[in-house]
Amino acid sequence: MLDEYFYEIIAVATLVGGGLFLAGLRNPIVFFYAGLFGTAILKTPELPIVREKFTIVELCLLCLWMCWPLLLKGRLPSKATGLVYLWGGAFCIICLSSSLIAISTAPPRMVTAKMAAWSLLEAVNYCYGVAILWTCVQVLDTWQRWIGAIVAWVGGMAVASFVGAAAVVGIAPGWAREETGRICSTLRNENQVPSMILPLLVVVLMIAVRRGLPIRYRGLALAIFVAALLAAIGTGSRTAALMIGLSGAGVVWILHTAIQSKWTVYRFQLFYLAVGFAGVVVSYFAIAWSQYDGNYSLMSTPSWQRPAVLLIEWFDGRRELDGTRPKQITNAMEYFWQSPILGTGPKFGPAFAATGGEVHNTYFSLLLETGFVGLGAFLALVWLAAYLSFDAARKCRYPWYGILGRALLVGLFLICLYNGTMLGLRQRNIWFLMGMLLAFSDLVAAGAEPESTLPRQIPKGMRAIFVDENSRQGKEVVSSQ
């Protein structure tokens, strides 16, 4: 369907790409922001070997790495960098070793040239994720850059959310939907949408109630929040519905733990929004169920009804919540014990364990294909990001930055939940998010202070997003546990 707009896409890409390249040569951090923004736009042509895996994200990061000497002028002391080298390096070595061993020892009928290439590509893809994490820790060395990364992700989230919301109401082009009617927006498939837009759901809600921010920006943030909800529900994903519900618990946790949040956000507005949101969720389930014809079908049941129908029928005991994933996990665990240390090798797992396709669970997939050492190294990275950022949020002297750090931590929990229902390590979002959290912990540990001036490209009205005015007035605030 995108072929119909081939020349228009080429023209726009050329103009935007040329401007981006010139801006990036003057200030290479632009390439990082563009790459993060580009995680929302994954509809790209399939290439040999790498297939659809080479996107605008990779192009921007390659440009960033080529400009590396121009980017780093002075680094803050980093507690996270050594840990990333240790556990990230271990994870990369394990994935590559497991792949090479599998290629060398698997039965000849399985080791075709295509399978060997896919296995190595999968291992390299995991290493690439670690490289993204390391890059985040290196380049996000000021509060301004860190907030800039959040804004870049929110920008991509806005694009995917508004296109997805337009598809829900039927005014988006056909490529924003899959054949089943489920919303894929600007991403390649519907399952990628929740992992891109929902980790920052709480962030945009906090921006919508940020004190000192002009109402036009707060209104835009609220519009992004609503569009993200519509797009996520339009994917027909039960995981997305659960992620949305747990986001509410995340908001409660943030307001409970950030002592001086009343100086930073309009708490009453947030309360009313939360009540309204709860009412909308209840109304959604009621409307979806009332419109349901009683005959569920992937092709005929509207995608927006799907999460409510499946969850209600599961609660009533009329259907299993999932018939595929439990069987895949069972098969994976039965075969895991035959190669528990380094696993079967990336991409070889489904063939050996007869799971009927890739295991739709990141953790059990890693356990099957890279063994307990591969899974252990990955979980160590997740734990480091969660623990260090949680500790930093408690110690952060700047209430607004502390709230954003907590909001990203909620996002990490949500994306870890998502990875429990999908093999999500090929997607870049979890690596970017872990890197941003580790960068946050470095900034707090180093005692970094907010910049007093902003680049002229940033509108003055957005100052409240980038600078914590409360802290600059001399209010030293340390968040509680």
Automatic annotation (TrEMBL):
Keywords: Ligase, Membrane, Transmembrane, Transmembrane helix. This is O-Antigen ligase. The chain crosses the membrane at residues 20-42, 54-72, 84-103, 115-140, 146-172, 193-209, 215-233, 240-259, 271-289, 366-386, 398-418. It holds the Pfam family Wzy_C. It comes from the Bacteria. PANTHER family: LIPOPOLYSACCHARIDE BIOSYNTHESIS PROTEIN PA4999-RELATED, TEICHURONIC ACID BIOSYNTHESIS PROTEIN TUAE. Its main location: membrane. It is a multi-pass membrane protein. InterPro entries: O-antigen_ligase-rel_domated, WaaL-like.
